[in-house]
Design brief:
By secondary structure, the protein is an all-alpha fold. About 75% of the residues lie in helices and about 0% in strands.
């Protein structure tokens, strides 16, 4: 529609220009004809009949239908009679250059050529300007596409406004290209951005779900489909809390992308869903909200929901994991190491037979090591080794025991522990380190 309006505007301008040009030519001819009529009349009064004849003829050529044309004809006839010429026969006379240049045909032709040149110039330079503008627009869209390829979400910006990475830029890209892999990727990014501001907006959630499904369906070979598949699972898990769809989506990702960097996350969430009965998803709802707050770095809100889960569903697997997560937040996110020790110990006291109890014993050793309380750290690590002799990260505990003995200057015990790592865990990543430390300590 805008293009049609521009074309119509150009046509109207051209027509108006032609009308003004020919109106101006008519007015000019009438003006000059009137001047020649006046000059001819004066020449007749002065007795210069030859000049009178010439000027009067020119006035009639230029303006044959003016209000003084009748008088000019009479005076022209009188001048011809005086000069002995018959006004009836009108002998052939050669047309002067002026008469030819001021004739209607020549003026009309000159006007048409001028208008044609004007239109050609207008269209030519207008086309060049349009091409340049289009090139600038396409270059700008390529910059936006580059940001989309990097999966950079848009920022706060008015729509249809070109900014460094505004929402309007992404919408412009979508409007221009209509359909492509990156258009759908841009739609996903825009919807994610908008949901970030309005997480409970059902229309936005439905829109994002549609975009995810369209992308997976239309571009199964895309380099981005793996991430979209994972995002789709997260979307069902966190946003809609539709755990049946989340489980199905994560399973598809595990099947199609077994080497994905999100495999462990997907596996843990599938297990989390399958470990909770479908007829009572309430604790899972609480857990998911707490985990969402954790990902958003709202640690106090996350702690509050984890505690609510522990209080309301204390003997469920989710409650055990929630208690362990409380300790993890204190250790790694709020830097309250002493409080973390208390929460790890609480995990052991409440859920002593669980896997999380073993992890908590190990983490208590980590806490004491962080506090430079090496004797307490050794005690915690050894308790872990004794109670969980089949744990997968037992070699780590032995290494840190040896490290703590070094810090306490008990080199004999440190050497014995390093030697045990080499003997009992030949495939451990700590073997090379242990050999290096033995070599260094034996030289002292």
């Amino acid at each position: 529609m805008p293009t049609n309006l521009k074309t119509q505007t150009k046509i109207i301008i051209a027509l108006v220009t032609i009308y003004v040009l020919f109106f101006g030519i008519g007015r000019y001819r009438q003006y000059v004809g009137g001047r020649y009529f006046q000059a001819g009349t004066r020449a007749l009064q002065e007795g210069n009949y030859t000049k009178a004849k010439t000027d009067l003829k020119r006035s009639l050529i230029l303006s044959p239908h003016s209000n003084w044309a009748g008088q000019a004809k009479n005076e022209l006839s009188f001048s011809q009679i005086i000069l002995g010429e018959s006004s009836e026969t009108k002998p052939q006379e050669s047309m002067s250059l002026f008469d030819w240049l001021t004739s209607s045909a020549v003026l009309a032709m000159a006007g048409a050529i001028i208008v044609l040149l004007f239109l050609v110039g207008y269209l030519h330079f207008g086309r060049i300007a349009k091409v340049r503008k289009l090139e600038e627009h396409v270059a700008y869209l390529k910059i936006v596409e580059h940001r989309i390829k990097l999966k950079i979400k848009p920022t706060l910006a008015g729509k249809n406004t070109a900014t460094s990475d505004g929402a309007g830029d992404y919408q412009n890209y979508i409007d221009y290209y209509k359909k492509s892999e990156y258009v759908l990727l841009a739609k996903c990014l825009l919807a994610e951005y908008e949901i970030g501001a309005k997480p409970e907006d059902q229309d936005l959630n439905s829109q994002l779900e549609k975009h995810y499904l369209e992308f997976i369906s239309n571009y199964p070979e895309s380099a981005y489909v793996e991430e979209i598949q994972q995002k789709s699972g997260n979307f069902y898990f966190f946003n809609l809390r539709d755990f049946a769809k989340a489980r199905a989506t994560y399973k598809v990702m595990l099947e199609k992308f077994p080497q994905s960097r999100w495999v462990k996350i997907a596996q843990s969430r599938v297990k989390l869903i399958e470990d909770n009965p479908e007829d009572n998803y309430e604790p899972l709802h609480i857990y998911v909200r707490a985990e969402r707050y954790y990902e958003e770095k709202k640690y106090e809100d996350s702690l509050e929901l984890f505690r609510k889960l522990i209080a309301g569903f204390g003997q469920t697997r989710l409650a055990i994991e929630a208690q362990y997560n409380v300790a993890e937040i204190y250790l790694y996110k709020t830097n309250h190491t002493e409080r973390a020790i208390e929460e790890y110990q609480r995990t052991i006291d409440l859920y002593g037979q669980s896997l999380f109890a073993g992890k908590s014993m190990y983490k208590i050793g980590e806490c004491y090591k962080k506090l430079l309380k090496f004797s307490e750290a050794i005690s915690a690590y050894e308790k872990f080794i004794t109670n969980f002799p089949q744990a997968e990260f037992l070699d780590y505990a032995y290494y840190y025991v040896a490290f703590c003995w070094e810090q306490l200057k008990d080199l004999r015990k440190a050497l014995d522990t390093y030697q045990k790592i080499i003997q009992d865990f030949p495939d451990s990543i700590w073997v090379v380190v242990a050999e290096s430390r033995i070599a260094a300590l034996t030289q002292k």
